[in-house]
């Protein structure tokens, strides 16, 4: 009779079949149709879950339900899902209150014309860190990028490339980003600690990106823009969330406070009718349903794969190539990048790769802050460079370009790779393998 494993299960390659099925369906449909979003990720994951259920006949169906119940009931999974929903509520409330438009216009109003493209990158960084969404940042700034391109003569690809680079900065760093939430919760560290670790890894990449954009656009024409209206009061919710998260206030308190303040500001400035307050929040929450449900289904699949010995098999393979903490960090980075290239969704990639990365980091003494940062960084690298990712597809659609027009100007994701690998290679460690500041 099959017994659920208390100790580590025997490594089995066949236990990874559900993920193989997912990849074949998801990537195969994208290749066949030419649209990598033709197959909804949740449908592909549900099919993979069905495959996981029909595997291993020695384990009864009721026992499999108990296994996935334990996996989904993990406090990290529950916390992650609740944060997803609250982050969506904040995004909906602050957008309805006019916070996005006011924040963008405020930044553009104080920019010197000679650094307009650099400004697009910097504003994109600020907006994405504040909003926690690269897609929202691209949607907000793409029309501005088009206008600056028309007024300066700069290539449209350069302008929207600066926006997309800034969007990926916050997608990786923001403490209300679903990628950060997923990375932190799967690795078991604090958001503020991960932010500090992550920030110093990518800071050189951001600085060099600014320098590159400055030099390739410094001889461009001046920008003449119409007066950009903004209301400084509408920027307050963003500042509240950003400052609160940075000083270490509980993320639930930060997000709930952000929602309340956004609604108060929206009503006070006549941006939101009192009767529409809950609709604004509900719309944002609804926008997070997909990733919340996907996280639950992925947790089910991972729980069964782990029970069948799939995670142990991956670890066994990794152990053949990993030599010490540095090798483990490179392995975690490569795992996150590979899974993102397969799924075209950095949050899903982190949710899938997270449990494996946690096992690797525990085995080789990698600090959870490091493993969370590397997961987030390299999943974002993939997402910022693959032509079938939502970010580049959205940027291309909004500007009439193709993703391949924009990729040559995605300096920030390219430099993130270099910066992170240098950080892995040259940062000193103590005798326990932990990085030393």
List keywords for this structure.
437 residues, mainly alpha, disordered N terminus
Chart the SSEs and their pairings.
Blueprint lengths: L16 H17 L7 H14 L6 H12 L2 H22 L2 H11 L6 H16 L2 H19 L3 H18 L4 H10 L3 H27 L18 H11 L4 H18 L8 H10 L2 H20 L1 H12 L2 H20 L2 H19 L3 H18 L4 H10 L3 H4 L4 H16 L11
Can you characterise this structure?
- By secondary structure, the chain is mainly α.
- It has one domain (about 15-425).
- Helices cover about 75% and strands about 0% of the residues.
- It contains 21 helices and no strands.
- α7 (about 135-150) packs antiparallel against α8 (about 155-175).
- Mean pLDDT is about 80; it is low at about 1-5.
* Outline: globular
Sheet/helix structural class: mainly alpha
Radius of gyration computed on alpha carbons? 22 Å
Main β-sheet, in a few words? none
Tally of strands: 0
Kindly give the count of domains. Answer: 1
Total number of helices: 21
Distance between the termini: 51 Å
How would you spell out the order of helices and strands?
HHHHHHHHHHHHHHHHHHHHH
- Average pLDDT taken over every residue: 82
Short account of what is shown:
This protein has 437 residues and is mainly alpha-helical. The protein is 74% helix and 0% strand.
């Amino acid at each position: 009779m099959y017994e659920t494993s208390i100790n580590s299960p025997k490594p089995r390659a066949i236990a990874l079949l559900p993920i193989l099925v997912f990849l074949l369906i998801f990537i195969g449909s994208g290749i066949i149709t030419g649209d990598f979003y033709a197959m909804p990720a949740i449908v592909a994951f549900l099919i993979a879950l069905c495959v996981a259920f029909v595997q291993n006949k020695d384990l009864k169906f009721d026992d499999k339900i108990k296994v996935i119940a334990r996996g989904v009931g993990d406090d990290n999974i529950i916390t992650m899902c609740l944060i997803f929903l609250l982050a969506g509520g904040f995004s909906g409330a602050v957008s309805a209150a006019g916070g996005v438009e006011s924040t963008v216009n405020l930044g553009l109003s104080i920019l010197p014309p000679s650094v307009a493209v650099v400004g697009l990158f910097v504003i994109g960084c600020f907006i994405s860190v504040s909003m926690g969404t690269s897609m929202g940042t691209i949607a907000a700034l793409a029309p501005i990028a088009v206008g600056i391109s028309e007024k300066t003569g700069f290539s449209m690809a350069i302008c929207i490339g600066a926006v997309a680079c800034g969007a990926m900065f916050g997608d990786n760093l923001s403490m209300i980003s679903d990628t950060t939430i997923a990375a932190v919760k799967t690795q078991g560290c604090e958001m503020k600690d991960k932010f500090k670790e992550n920030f110093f890894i990518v800071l050189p990449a951001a600085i060099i990106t600014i320098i590159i954009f400055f030099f390739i656009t410094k001889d461009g024409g001046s920008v003449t823009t119409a007066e950009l209206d903004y209301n400084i009061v509408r920027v307050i919710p963003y500042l509240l969330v950003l400052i609160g998260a940075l000083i270490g206030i509980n993320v639930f308190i930060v997000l709930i406070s952000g929602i309340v303040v956004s609604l108060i500001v929206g009503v006070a400035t006549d941006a939101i009718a009192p009767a529409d307050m809950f609709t604004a929040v509900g719309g944002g929450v609804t926008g997070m349903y997909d990733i919340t449900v996907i996280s639950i289904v992925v947790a089910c699949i991972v729980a069964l794969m782990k029970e069948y010995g799939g995670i142990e098999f991956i670890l066994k393979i990794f152990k053949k190539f990993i030599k010490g903490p540095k090798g483990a960090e490179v392995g975690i980075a490569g795992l996150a990048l590979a899974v993102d290239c397969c799924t075209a969704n950095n949050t899903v990639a982190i949710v899938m790769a997270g449990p494996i990365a946690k096992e690797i980091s525990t085995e080789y003494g990698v600090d959870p802050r490091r493993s969370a940062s590397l997961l987030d960084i390299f999943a974002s690298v993939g997402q910022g460079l693959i032509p079938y990712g939502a970010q580049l597809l959205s940027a291309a659609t909004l500007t009439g370009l193709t993703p391949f027009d924009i990729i040559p100007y995605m300096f920030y994701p390219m430099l993130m790779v270099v910066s992170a690998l240098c950080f892995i290679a040259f940062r000193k460690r103590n005798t326990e393998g932990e990085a030393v500041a």
